[in-house]
Design brief:
The complex is a heterodimer of chains A (284) and B (442). Chain A has 284 residues and is an alpha/beta fold. Helix content of chain A is 32%, strand content 28%. In chain A, strands 5-6-7-3-8-9 form a 6-stranded mixed β-sheet, sandwiched between helices. In chain A, strands 2-1-4 form a 3-stranded antiparallel β-sheet, with helices on one face. In chain A, a hairpin with a 2-residue loop joins strand 1 (2-11) and strand 2 (14-24). The longest helix of chain A has 16 residues, at 162-177. Chain A is globular and about 75 Å long. Chain B has 442 residues and is an alpha/beta fold. Chain B is 68% helix and 6% strand. Chain B contains 17 helices and 5 strands. In chain B, strand 1, helix 3 and strand 2 (76-81) form a beta-alpha-beta unit. The radius of gyration of chain B is 32 Å and the shape is elongated. Classes of the chains: A alpha/beta (284), B alpha/beta (442). Chain A binds chain B through residues 48-52, 67, 69-70, 72-73, 75, 77, 79-85, 87-88, 92, 96-97, 99-102, 142, and chain B through 2-3, 6-7, 10, 13-14, 17-18, 276-278, 280-288, 440-442.
């Protein structure tokens, strides 16, 4: 559904995207994981045609360029900022966006989406009076008015409460199950791990690694750490398979220097990023 | 076109929900036009008198007293003239607001009022635009008529004479039945006895009691009787391209403030869309780049036209502002709206940030409005200032609106201000399309 091929984009001396390539298919959720300034939002802007790449190619739905009017009907963008009209009601916002995409029976579609994001009872409320979480959910609904096959979600959970975050997660899962191609940018590794089939780890405009969570961890996460707490002190072992390693440890209480506690630390995406860049995701 | 219309409706809806923006686009200009119109006209302090020319065709004491009563009022200044044609001419030239003729037989009719004599109407002419003044003249005339009549009839000899005439008419009337005739006769006889008795008493106290009672007016109980019928024909004023009221100056200025309000409101909305991120949503929607600009422009155009039409209609209906011709008024409104929409697009497209745009747009518009004659009328400005004002679209908008009003411009004369406004609009549109395209794909 989306093909990005060796795309470069600079802003003056700053390299925003440096030879980025990726593919997203229908029914697949691909995460762009990287710190702030990694080039995630620029990649999104390039994918919807708001920015023009200096070189490389982006193809939507087969052969269309992102700037083509026809291609835009295939894309739904949920921007990082809350892009809604605060003086309009939730329903009026969605009906307006339906109008831009020529959606038939816009009011019915708007009400359907409001129900989908749990705002059915706030259809007549002005957006300016909504909480941050409600605005985020409506922001996401606005990207779906025309039922696009490709959905680009740019940090859709930034600054939301746990209830709204879970609602957004549920919606993303249902979109994926409905066969939508989803690009999900985030700098929260937990979100990427929970939602994404594949993850592109990017930093300074480049894809550092790509694959499923397990593949990435296996390839770049390093060994697990098995921590054994004994009466004499704490012992840490780096092992490939901590369960097998644990099987070799005598755990009987009457053993010499018995084990009083065990902890297994498996590598995660944070470790993957640390190993790839030498920096932590949270440092940014 | 459907998507552009969708964008325009959204923008109009947003503006209608912005009380401050709506105030400056609608209420403030109207208040400006009315308030300054009253101030320039001297009506604000309530000290202005209506100049009325009067021809006393009756030449009686009663008619003179009537005119004196009118002149004594705070609202009217009477100038007695000798020639009817002179009166009409001076109203036509705008040297006086109205002209009245107190008809021959006025005094006789007043004295014979109880004998059934009809009071002849006071005729004359007035500028049809002076609706408010006509109302004041009517009211003051009725009050003066009552006062004159009561004063006249307070003369007991006149009253007795009037009642005697009524009694004579009663005797001569052959269409009354016996009972009615008897009742009327008794009533008039009683009235005469009362008047004669009062006359003898008046030798002792000058009849103050009766006269005072009659003069009080309220105790007379005239019911719906009207002692003065004012019949004024309309005489259109020939102003020779000059305003005939301050409102004809202040309403075009008010229109300039109205378009300023519209332009500032929509100019800010375009920049605000960028700052809030909604512009990004519009940019990714399947509509041409220029569609976003056109949607905003259409909303601004529609609101500007609506506000200008309301001001034109209100001015014509309630403040006597002339509309020279509907084609010229239409041309002035449409070219003004187009020119300022282009200006709005230009100003908003060169503003990079919301904060910068806020200050820049308002400052630019305010300076242009002031040098363009929206604050001080152009003819009050020194020559050099009037020359400088040519760079301001507000000057051309005011000129176009005045041209469609008291200046009475011909089609060729309207070409200049309308052409300048259309040209400014086209330049504004062109620049904004170019800059907006650069912004959205850079």
């Amino acid at each position: 559904m989306l093909r990005v091929e060796d795309v470069h984009k600079r802003f003056g001396d700053t390299v925003a995207v440096d030879g980025l390539s990726m593919r997203v298919r229908g029914g697949e959720c691909v995460g762009l994981l990287g710190p702030n300034g990694a080039g995630k939002t620029t990649t999104m802007s390039l994918s919807v045609g708001v920015l023009k790449p200096d070189s490389g190619r982006i193809v939507i739905g087969g052969e269309g360029a992102p700037s083509d009017t026809k291609s835009r009907r295939h894309v739904g963008l949920c921007p990082q900022a809350i892009a809604l009209y605060e003086r309009l009601t939730a329903l009026e916002n969605l009906v307006f966006f339906c109008g831009l995409y020529g959606v038939e029976r816009p009011k019915e579609r708007a009400l359907e989406l409001l129900e989908m994001v749990g705002l059915g009872d706030r259809a007549g409320g002005r957006v300016g009076t909504f909480s941050g979480g409600m605005q985020r959910r409506l922001n996401l609904a606005s990207a779906l008015v025309h039922d696009p096959p490709l959905v680009l979600l740019d940090e859709p959970t930034a600054g939301v409460d746990p209830h709204s975050r879970n609602a957004i997660f549920d919606l993303v899962r249902s979109l994926r199950e409905a066969g939508k191609a989803i690009v999900y940018t985030t700098h929260y590794m937990e979100e990427a791990q929970r939602l994404c089939d594949r993850i592109e780890i990017i930093d300074q405009g480049r894809v550092l690694a790509s694959g499923t969570v397990d593949e990435l961890i296996k390839a770049h996460g390093g060994e697990s750490v098995l921590t054994l707490e004994r009466a004499s002190g704490v012992e840490k072992r780096s092992v490939d398979d901590p369960v097998r390693a644990l099987a070799d440890v005598p755990l009987a209480p009457d053993a010499d220097d018995p084990v009083t506690g065990v902890r297994i630390d498996r590598p995660d995406l944070e470790a993957v990023f640390l190993n790839l860049t030498g920096r932590s995701l949270r440092d940014h | 076109m459907g998507m552009i219309w969708t964008l325009a409706i959204k923008d109009l809806r947003l503006l209608l929900r912005d009380p401050v923006g709506l105030f400056f686009a609608t209420v403030f200009p109207l208040a400006f036009g009315v308030l300054f119109g009253l101030i320039y006209a001297g009506g604000g302090g309530g000290g202005g008198e209506i100049d009325v020319l009067a021809l006393d065709a009756d030449g009686s004491e009663t008619s003179a007293a009537f005119l004196e009563r009118l002149d004594d009022s705070d609202a009217i200044a009477i100038e007695v003239i000798e020639n009817e044609d002179d009166g009409r001419r001076r109203v036509r030239l705008g040297e006086a607001t109205a002209f009245i003729i107190v008809p021959q037989g006025y005094e006789s009719a007043i004295k014979g009022v109880f004998a059934g004599e009809a009071i002849p109407p006071i005729t004359g002419a007035i500028d049809p635009a002076r609706v408010a003044e006509a109302g004041v003249l009517q009211g003051v005339s009725i009050a003066a008529g009552f006062q004159v009549m009561t004063t006249t009839l307070a003369d007991l000899e006149v009253l007795d004479e009037t009642l005697e005439r009524a009694q004579t008419q009663l005797r001569e009337a052959d269409n009354l039945d016996v009972v009615s005739r008897g009742l009327f006769s008794t009533m008039i006889s009683s009235g005469r006895s009362l008047a004669q008795r009062a006359a003898s008493d008046a030798n002792e106290d000058d009849g103050d009691a009766i006269a005072g009672g009659l003069e009080s007016g309220a105790s007379i109980g005239f019911g719906g009787f009207n002692p003065v019928a004012l019949e004024l024909e309309s005489i259109a004023r020939e102003t020779g391209g000059k305003p005939r009221s301050a409102f004809e100056i202040t309403f075009p200025q008010a229109a300039a403030w109205a378009v300023l309000g519209c332009v500032a409101g929509f100019g800010m909305s375009l920049v605000r869309e960028r700052a809030k991120g909604t512009m990004l949503r519009l940019a990714v929607a399947p509509l041409p780049r220029h569609g976003i600009v056109l949607g905003k422009a259409l909303a601004c155009f529609l609101l500007t036209v609506a506000v200008l039409v309301v001001l034109q209609v209100a001015g014509a209906m309630f403040f006597g502002i002339r509309v020279h011709a509907w084609w010229s008024a239409t041309a002035a409104v449409l070219s003004t709206a187009f020119g300022f929409v282009g200006l709005m697009m230009f100003l908003s497209s060169i503003s990079q940030t919301e904060g910068g745009a806020e200050g820049f747009v308002r400052a630019m518009l305010l300076v242009m409005a002031l040098i363009g004659g929206a604050g001080m009328p152009l003819f009050f400005m020194p020559d050099w200032m009037q020359a400088v004002s040519g760079v301001s679209p507000f000057r051309w908008a005011i000129l176009a609106l005045e041209g469609a009003s008291f200046r009475g411009y011909s089609p060729s004369e309207m070409m200049t201000p309308c052409g300048v406004l259309l040209g400014m609009g086209l330049v504004g549109f062109g620049v904004s399309f170019f800059l907006f395209r650069r912004w959205s794909v850079s």
